[in-house]
Amino acid sequence: MHAVLTILAKDLRLRLRDRSAFVVGVLTPFGLAFVLNLILGGVDDFSAHFGVVDDDHGEVADAFVETTGHLGDDIEVTTGLSEDEARSEVDDGSLDAAFVIPEGFSDEVLGQQPAELRVIGNVDADIPVQIARGVAERFAAQVDAVRLSVATASPPATPPATPPDAALIAVASQQQAPVELTAVAAPDRQLDTTTYQIAGLAALFVFFLVQYGVLGLLEEKQTGTMARLLVAPIPRWSVVVAKALVSVIVGLVALTVLAVGSTLIMGADWGDPVAAAALIAGLVVAAVSITGLVAGAARTAEQAGNVQTVVALVLGLLGGSFFPLSQGEGLLAHLSVLTPQHWFLQGLGEGRVGGLADALPSVGALLVFAVVMGTAGLVLLHRRLGEGRA
Amino acid sequence: MTAGPLRKVLAIAGVDLRRLFRDRSNIFFILVFPLLLVLVVGVVFGGDDDLRIGVAAPSADPLTVRVVDALHHDDALDVEDYGSESGLRSAVEHGRVQAGVIVPADFGERLRAGDRVDIAFVAGPSGAGVAAQPVVDAAVRPLLIELQAARFAADRGDGDLDAALARATELAPSVPEVEVDTRTVGDELFAGDLGRFDVGASSELVLFMFVTGLGSAAALIRTRQMGVSRRMLSTPTSSRVILAGEVLGRFAIVALQGGYIVVATWLLFGVGWGDPLGALSVVVLFGLVTTGAAMLAGSVFANEQQASAAGLMLGLGLGAIGGCMVPLQIFPDTLRTIAHVTPQAWANDAFADLVGDTGGFVEILPDLAVLAAMAAVLLALATWRLRRVLTR
């Protein structure tokens, strides 16, 4: 035990002196996430600006303009525009969409004629334009519903050209719809963009960071200091454990710094702290184990470093470090499940809603990675260290 | 008989190339990974814009079936049936579908009894969840109108909702409607004709050329440390020839990767790179910029580890700022202007025109000019520093 602590202390001191660990493990992901956050910062916030052109000024037009005033706080509405004004403002993007009520609209509606409402949308404002369309269509649907109600309730023998019974129309207009589509919110088990970026990048870079301890094993073997260590009256496993612990500690510290820093500086939301801590611990242990396996299987430190980078990038890509893969097609989504990054990110999302309890399955998955890879790695490393011992 | 200067330059460059490919992991970084990334980006982001929703409607009642059918028949929706409300909610929360529609099990009964019923719409947390509501609304609205008419008629008649609904459905096409005419105006951010893999391919190209180039800076440092350059100088070779050889070596690596990505993505993913002269010019000029930056980095950093860490950070950082990870078109205006401090932004602009077919060689000349200027400055700085450092 004492041997482990001594080696651990020495290695940690060495690592602290080497600033490239800090650059790679903390500065780079942080910097990247910061830049990406600047660029994508507002993407989760929704707001829209609509315009209203009323060329009719009749009753029905007034009723429609009235409904546009009740679209919620996220939507700003400017009324009283002319069609040319509205069109040019939508074109240059100062309005996302504009409603145009053509002249004669109210008369057509009241006269049971076909009528038309127009929506002019900005080609790049997909969502606001869809919402504007929805508003117009809902209004149109109310009118249609009244007309169809009257038609259905009228005696079948009525010749189609007969103007409908005004009293019937009046009653139909008062009727409440028997079925409505009502929106219900879902608890947010996914990370917001800012947090996702930083967590995703952290999950990628932790693999580069934990190299230092474990690959140090191979380096020392090559430079010859390992042989001297092994001659000392200490069990072989203590060397391996010490190196692994270095990686674990470095990883834990770096990720904690990233988590706290991003929360304070970028407004990231890592959710329940206990869940986040458990997930960070799980991820670091999994990363160290995978690194150990790579180190045990490689022949030289340089080869191990290169393979490690390859493994980290592929796992990161499939695990969603760069962008979420659950949006993708079936095969990719299935492959994603085989990466620690996926479980880390998913666990953080769950933890936001249900705390540690909901994050536990993800922590469990990470530990499974750690145990499986770690055991294989330990065996290989143990054997590797024993090689060349004359 | 000593070889002429040109042969020496080529020999020095050749050593660099051979050393690069002897390390097999370089083959992954330079050749395989960029394609992998283009593939994944294309698959994830380039696909159809259909909204994926789930519907939980556990009932065989004809009225419920009509609601589900209305959703399935809508072209803008990609609908998946769930057996239970909790299964659907879980799928929405986890992002497997963007939104969900829940039809209560007693939907038909309650309607026939004269009650009001709500169909629940559960929006997922992403922006797509918000977007799905008007689309779902539009998909079921005709049916809801018919139901309203049927209820009205049934209340005033014999109370048989299903018969009234059949009548309403029959009459619906002949009743004049209020139409909503939606048109779009404005300049599109992204050229309309982009293929699935096109958007990612050019920005990945720019990103990788630069990152690979900076990575080769580490090799340059090793050359210095191993004293190879000093040994080269001890032969009857001028420092100018050695520098030219190093520049050519770095450039060859970077340009090779660029050319390879262009050809490979074109062959494998059908990415159209536009005007060939334009594409070639961007690859060459951006390659020169990268070479200059890499050699400058190689002359500034003292050891390999520092260089690779800083190189990775600079490569990814400048790449992100320059629009390699998120397209420039999506940048807020001020940031987009600032982005043009980086060569990546200019290269991305040029490629956006080329790939999107909105411009050829002539249209991208301004971008090429800026890249050429940046290359000249960086190479001049690099050779000046290296001449001093190599001979130390």
Provide a concise account of the structure shown.
The complex is a heterodimer of chains A (390) and B (392). Chain A is of the alpha/beta class and 390 residues long. Chain A contains 15 helices and 5 strands.
Architecture overview:
The complex is a heterodimer of chains A (390) and B (392). In chain A, α1 crosses α11 and α2 packs antiparallel against α8 (193-209). Chain A is elongated and about 105 Å long. Chain A is α/β, with parallel strands linked by helices. Chain A is built from 15 helices and five strands. Chain B is of the alpha/beta class and 392 residues long. Chain B has helices at residues 5-22, 24-45, 62-72, 85-93, 107-112, 127-156, 161-171, 198-225, 228-234, 239-269, 276-300, 304-321, 333-339, 343-355, 365-390; strands at 51-56, 77-82, 99-102, 117-123, 178-185. The model of chain B has no long low-confidence stretch (mean pLDDT 84). At the A-B interface, α2, α4, β4, α6 and β5 of A face α2, α4, β3, β4 and α6 of B. β5 (179-185) of chain A pairs parallel with β4 (117-123) of chain B.
Strand ordering within the main sheet of chain B: 2-1-3-4
Give the count of helical stretches of chain B.
15
Give the low-confidence spans of chain B: none
Mass-distribution shape of chain B: elongated
Based on helices, strands and strand pairing, what is the structural class of chain B? alpha/beta
Strand content of chain A: 5-15%
Per DSSP E runs of 2 or more residues, the count of β-strands of chain B stands at 5
Distance from N terminus to C terminus of chain A (CA atoms, Å) equals: 26 Å
**Average pLDDT number of chain A:** 83
What oligomeric state do these chains adopt? heterodimer
Mean pLDDT of chain B: 84
Unreliable parts of chain A: none
- What string gives the helices and strands of chain A in order? HHEHEHEHEHHEHHHHHHHH
- Distance between the ends of chain B: 28 Å
Helix content of chain A: 55-70%
The major sheet of chain A is characterized as: 4 strands, mixed
